[in-house]
């Protein structure tokens, strides 16, 4: 015989299964249950509820009618972590049956390491020269001359333009970055 | 059964966590997908007792108890369940008696072992009393007044307080080892216990309300036999029917000393084989119904002088006596084609009450109504009104609320599903025309071109029509729903055509009630149904079987698909066949009432080849080892291919498995025994024989290992798993009897024993899943007291013996068998594996948990190659390190919170999409859903963000053009410098 007391609104859909339903305990309105006439042996008491997961217990009934309850451990049967008897079984958690849908959030996008590694250097390239320009007009001139020299040297045909003329609707990422770097 | 060290295990767990994160362990649903492609139907089983709820809100609910150990409350307005209590499956849960009056709802279960009082409103238990139980299994329960419940079990009577369940008194019954006590009856201030001693006497024990035995008398009844039926009527008369001489014996309980005999002939009734009695409880007079046929009843009145015929009710199939305000009325139901006629008579005058007469439309596929439960009430204008529920032969329950119309029905036969097939729906007319083009080769090019042109024009037309309908859709739909609400019918008018991905099917369900259903997979609505009162399942060893064969699928247009149900005839035990078109439900080749064969069926099989019209014949073997082909036109196929037709029969009674081959003999075909395996019936019994799914698709022939070599699978389609269970006596000093399980892998053509293993100290029930090159089975380990899941995988080795086709006669060497076992932390009732169209998708195993869930775990978790110590090589192969316990998480439960009770089987079927497998679980409930074991890899997810993707693309495009323009301008300005 087992007894248990617990507060719950889910009494109607909750079942107490002993050894997977070989014996069933029926809940009363105060949440307690009794399972009568069990032969001696070792039983697993589980609570079946559609929305919550409950802890289960192993109950041993000896030939003399002694009853003890302990935690269920399938790996090591001899585990003797005892539980209070009469059983007081509590819900462990709400059963999470559903995945949450992935939502697109701007912070997720920005915090993505890939984005970070791409955006930071871009910032450095774009912003640092501007900062230096503002600082010193001479340096600016020097830079400009350097840039000129650099640009003159690069007589290599502009890939972005080439691509754009070949496939007017291509949208690969490469041309974009090339274009921005100038 | 593995042993493992503690330290090793923790290491493994850590490693596993890493692996698990990368592995798609489960694909869970999203919350907004609830009910999108799944449906759930709850049943209670064949109803044995039915009461109008008198307590909570009277007349709003019906309390029922069923043969399947269910106690439930049904809303009377729509037939849905208010609550349902499923009792234990075994003898412990059998409901002996249900009693309902006023606020009291009490059940007696388990052969008199448990008395429970339930709250009729909520279904919660109020109290439970356990009693010693009845040895004979007969127990009875009556209520005596307001504060006494009397329970009779074989050797005692107990008096209980109905409020608390406290035992007030108990009385031992005399001579309880000789007399079988069968009835308990209360009359006035006394309780009467009736006991029977076959061929001798009837014992009557009188007990008063305080639990004192007043008298014990015996009345001579030498005619009492096994087949004698006895009932006690109100007013305290015992009435027994003797089938030997068709007579009724009556005895007044209060003072009667001898039985009075009345023959049926004297009453003017036609005696028949199936006479039964139905008690009348709602009035005080001693009345009883006598049923002589499915549609002939008689109302008898019992007097001190014997039996009097009160009213003969020819062609009446169900009747009830109801009283309201001291007026007793007799309700009768008569079945005429397409309708039921209900007539009501005043019992005192015998005249018909015309204002309650009504006819009800009634479909012939429900068989005869068997019981009617009427609720009478007074309308506001003081006229009489009635509501009634009808229980029919096909286990259905129908409710009439307004005169002449069935408000709803519950098809309880669906709680007895034995075989399932999912049939493809036919393609639409247009598509069929298109296919037709490839069918005929006679046409010349011009006509073919014209044909093609026409079909494409018509396709375009339907497409445009569809688009137009879609545009106008909202308005139209609105009208439809309004019309629907008015008529109360469901929208089954959409025609049955295949959808784009062939996801929707027609599910054919064959039930143990003898009813065959065609059910739409989209919503679970019944498309057609057939009822065969004479169809019974084959049963052996408590396993019922009705076979369903798909003889022709939908793929062979214009030939219609065809299915056949094979069972046995209830009366004679001979074979019973019914062939039908699974889409329309129309019978083909067999008469609409089914075809009864003139021989018994010992084994059935299907022909290996199709005939000219793509029909696959069924082979039926009779006890003389002769082979019959159904339909007869497929005999020519057998003539051609008899050399490759083999069969085997596993006999549970003898423990022999016999293999047969087909030999022609004087124009007939006989089966000749070629091999025999003796599984020693003395030690064990065969409990399971599991073959593979015929025509199973296996995509990959082998498995690539970490070192880039291939381990070829042993794919023997003739392999059968035979499970036997037995007991053995332990020789050690402790002794004791333990269960043992043996598993045999047999080649069913040659009888070759491919593999055998044995589990000691293990017991069933065992479920076997056999697919591809693996077998998964579960058993209960008695030593460690846990459920274990074992897996066997068979491999040919590093070389393949024959890469084109497998033959049992030139089979490869003994296959390599890998095996492992795991702990299943939850109790399961059955399991199945998913199947997909081409077998490319990885498999999942679906477990029906006793807790109510359907748990889907990837087969990769049940892989005997999971290493104890992971190495570089095993990591490369992708095996998960071994941990003994199978992981269970709520996301893997595919039926979320829709708990399923007493699942008996899971049927899986491929859909048109390779990623998707359709799952139907049956038992007390039906639940249908889809699973995607490797996620949805062939279709875009439904939450795919089209808008976002196109916005990004467009943005990129605009940026490219803009920057190109800018850079060109800049280059130009630079050139000017």
From TrEMBL, chain A:
Chain ranges passing through the membrane: 109-128
ER membrane protein complex subunit 7 beta-sandwich domain residues: 7-116
Database matches in InterPro entries: Beta_sandwich_EMC7, Carb-bd-like_fold, EMC7
Main location: membrane
Compartments, record wording: Membrane
Topology with respect to the bilayer: Single-pass membrane protein
One Gene Ontology MF term: carbohydrate binding
Keywords from the named record: Membrane, Signal, Transmembrane, Transmembrane helix
Gene Ontology CC annotations of this record: EMC complex
Record Pfam families: EMC7_beta-sandw
Top-level taxon: Eukaryota
Family of this protein: Belongs to the EMC7 family.
Protein name: ER membrane protein complex subunit 7 beta-sandwich domain-containing protein
UniProtKB/TrEMBL annotation, chain B:
Entry keyword set: Endoplasmic reticulum, Glycoprotein, Membrane, Signal, Transmembrane, Transmembrane helix
Record Pfam families: Beta-prop_EMC1_N, EMC1_C
Topology versus the membrane: Single-pass type I membrane protein
Signal peptide: 1-28
Major subcellular site: endoplasmic reticulum
Protein name, UniProt field: ER membrane protein complex subunit 1
Chain segments carrying region Disordered: 471-495
Domain EMC1 first beta-propeller: 28-412
InterPro entries named in the record: Beta-prop_EMC1_1st, EMC1, EMC1_C, Quinoprotein_ADH-like_sf, WD40/YVTN_repeat-like_dom_sf
Family of this protein: Belongs to the EMC1 family.
Keyword flag Glycoprotein: yes
Membrane-spanning residues: 944-963
Keyword Endoplasmic reticulum: yes
SUPFAM superfamilies recorded: Quinoprotein alcohol dehydrogenase-like
One GO term describing the cellular component: EMC complex
Subunit structure: Component of the ER membrane protein complex (EMC).
